[in-house]
Design goal:
The structure holds two protein chains of two kinds. In chain A, strand 5 and strand 6 form a beta hairpin. By secondary structure, chain A is mainly beta. Helices cover 0% and strands 53% of the residues of chain A. The N and C termini of chain A lie far apart (37 Å). Chain B contains no helices and twelve strands. The termini of chain B are far apart. In chain B, strands 2, 5, 6, 10, 11 and 12 form a six-stranded mixed sheet that branches. At the A-B interface, strand 5, strand 9 and strand 10 of A face strand 5, strand 6, strand 10 and strand 11 of B.
Chain lengths: 114, 116
Amino acid sequence: KAGVTQTPRYLIKTRGQQVTLSCSPISGHRSVSWYQQTPGQGLQFLFEYFSETQRNKGNFPGRFSGRQFSNSRSEMNVSTLELGDSALYLCASSYTSGGAYEQYFGPGTRLTVT
Amino acid sequence: AQKITQTQPGMFVQEKEAVTLDCTYDTSDQSYGLFWYKQPSSGEMIFLIYQGSYDEQNATEGRYSLNFQKARKSANLVISASQLGDSAMYFCAMRELSGSARQLTFGSGTQLTVLP
């Protein structure tokens, strides 16, 4: 069974631009969660989608948004990029919402904002 | 609010020896899950082991075991017979299972280096 895939793996953007990251969960998984990892703040939860609905949202500004498609693939969008948005963005998939021990992570997208 | 504390920023262990990585947590919830993840330099988070708050026995997965002490709110990871490939960042995480918050809350991590 294929694992969680994230595209692109690396991205360089300029301050003020917007970016879209993609996450394809493990086949059959319907929940996708997004996390931001930075050296200063560590791993922080962004949001979770289950069956195309946002189930939970972390404490991030409205510039961070996401969506989930009917095939469970998810995208997250960051508008008006700031230097502080430079981070590793990880997505995780699980079969159910709240099935934490089944949560499998992708390799991440490393975003650099210049 | 749930909180995870990992007090060891870095640890060194000799190859083939055992090592314990510390994790303490804080929650008012009675039902929760505790997890350990390994993150190599490549960035991917690899699930290692899970312990439920109502599990009476400590979880074990191969060379990994979780030393769960509920009264002390600690969930230390023990790696036996360390290997060079165990060198990585290790994160302790928790999820409260009875509320609406479904996200994992992570500790700050411990960088483990296995010496040959």
